[in-house]
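Worked example 4.2. Below are the chains of a multi-component assembly; read each line carefully before continuing.
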Amino acid sequence: MSHIHIPDGVLPLWLVALGWAGALALVWIASSRARRTDVRRKVPLLGVVAALVLVAMSTEVVPIAYHVNLTVVAGVLLGPWLGAIAAFIVVVMLALLGHGGVTVIGLNTLMIAAEMAIGWGLFRVLARAFGRRHVGWAAAAATIVTLAITTTALVGLVALAGGGAATGRETGALDPRSLTFANPFSGGIVSVNTLRGEAAPAKPAAPLSVARFAAVVYTLGPIGWVLEGLVTAAVLSYVARVRPGLVFGQAITEPERGPAGDEEAH
Amino acid sequence: MTPDRIYPATGHDHAHTEGCDTVVRVSCVKHSYEDGTHVDLCGLEFTADRGSRVAILGPNGAGKTTMLFHILGLLAPQEGTVEVFGVDPSSRWADIRRRIGVVLQNVDEQIISPTVYDDVAFSPRQYGLGEAEVRDMAEAALELLGIEHLAARVPHNLSGGEKRKVALAGALVMRPDLLVLDEPFEGLDPTSRTALIALLRTLAEERGVTIVMSTHDIDTVPEFADYAYVLQQGGRIVLKGTPAEVFARVDLMAAGNIRPPILAELFAQLREADPSAPAPALTVEDAVLALGAWKKA
Amino acid sequence: MDVRAIDLCATTGTSRLHRASPITKLGAFVLVLTAVVVQQNLFIVLACLLLLVALALGSRLPARHVFALAAYPAVFSLVFAFAAAPDAFTGAVFVVRAVAASLAAIVLLFVTPYPQLFAPLQRVLPEVVGDALLMTYRSVFLLAEKFEHLRVAIRLRSGLTHGHPVRALRATAGALGALVLYAFDLSQREYDVMRLRGYQGRLRITLPAAANRTFDAALLASAAAVLAIAVIFRAAGATLTPWSWLLAAAAALALLATIAGRLVRT
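Applying the procedure described above to all three chains together yields the following structure tokens:
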């Protein structure tokens, strides 16, 4: 439940548009920052990390119910700026696969970019506080806190959308309380009166129920946070053991080079 | 090495090239990897002359790929010198890259574009050539490898051999003067392998392309290479010469953990059993002639 | 998500939709998506959904994969509808609309090879982002294959069994850790290759022209008509709403006709 699975057409237009504007601005700033240094190194790195997140997301640990995200891992590896670009790529590809709506690509990008940035920051602080021997704890704690924050942001988003999701009859929506079926043959030989209801007065739609939504995500969410925390801890402590530079380094500019080609087969 | 090969005046930058026709020179390069692996490419000096086909032989971990990476400027020598077209490739790659075509070991990772045509057209497009010129070059390269029918295909649906051909087309598209190949015969069926050997020979003899390749496939060396270098574990270059010269040194081959071609082994054992046995032949035709003559004598 | 199946269908499919120009398909997708998003009327959204199903079946897309992908947004929008929708009717609109929007994206992905779909996008995106988007495509295949190998190896060596979630989680995390390292080495090698092959920024991709201009025009016109109907029904509101069930019925007939056509031909 970490990234938004809010489908298309639920959030009001202004929120969707704001999401797009924010995401495009973020991606634009991030890419102009990336261009200052060797672009050629960034492009394959971004491609690979975005692919990594996508492959991880397609892995179900517990069938259907839960899949890994690796967003915090990607954040730790890429840093916040490159992370924002990777977030955009991942969200675009997921939207085309039907995971998350196309119109909410902007909001989803902001959400995942935030997840990567917060995860990156928390992990750096906690890893320093806990010491390098306890990378796993730092990673797990950073992940759980990050996901709790982004889930809260998601609830906030729904609260913002709250009254805005207009479903009034005047917009052409069907209202169950006044459901009518017009019959093109009604003026003709047979009149199907059973399908005619009473004309109902237009009513303002009921708002989205934020409380129920919050209750659902805060009960289902923590299971996911803990699982993701465990996976992130395992992955990051594995990487920290084998290539500490990737985890503790500054933003990656110069990946460590292992022995070339056939030397790998010691 | 072959004095009859005349170096044509194709560009003024060759004036800087020392030894007039040495395209690649690697002198006692040493490299330590971060995990503690050391490769010392010392011993004999490695050179490749214009239009020659040079094979680098050695066991796993001998440093064949490290040598190629130095030639390609992917690794900068920590000690020793590397010269390609008279310059240091690690610092001046941009000056020479158009003249060098490369196929690395894992072709899957080398094909970066989403379709075969786009991948073959990758380099000319990056060098900013016009789309019409790019098309001509890409089509010529596809035709050279006989894979025009793959142009619209997606790389990951190709077979291993097809991918290798696509990577080669991508390396040949700029009509390079130097071709660097890491294990080029891996994954090719016998027919494709014979065709590739013939193609490389044509490139070397007709276009004067210098070819440097590393290989495990010892039996292709006599057919393919003018010269071969043998690397021992740790990178020491212990042997250099024509395939016949190299494979005659069965002792060094064994010490370097390299199995000689089956024919070389056969002739070596014949010699051991009977000193009148003929000098080693490395191709089946030569062996038939030599053994026939021996039988008559 | 089975990326391979999607790619195979997109690159080897021969339907008219496959052979249309990618820009036309993108345009039609945007029109239909807008129609789905602007509409609040269950019947109209349902009509779009039924037409999309007919389109998928008519283009002989692999039904199993298409509908498996479409099931994801159905599940998540159901959760969302349960959590946040004020009443069952609005909830139903959420679900149908989410599935319709996703199905539009999925059909697009199944009939257009990824590079052609992203080439127009890449041209308007910043260089780093666009190129990384295209690199992600190749990397997903390389990483997915590697990950599969790692999982098989782990399963053979340590017994990755379903029904033992902790062990499965640990094994998956181990494979992911190894995958992260492989991914970094891969990005290093891709960087080497790009440098060797003269990469200077901005990958270029050839876009195929439409096989049949009339079909492309018809496709765009139908998508525009769908949007026009959606907009008219929304604007006219209460007047036209009672008639909207006709659209759903017509779409259902079109779907039945498509299914019948397929049955007759096979």
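Take a moment to check your reading of the output against the notes. The longest helix of chain A spans residues 210-242. The longest strand of chain A covers residues 60-62.
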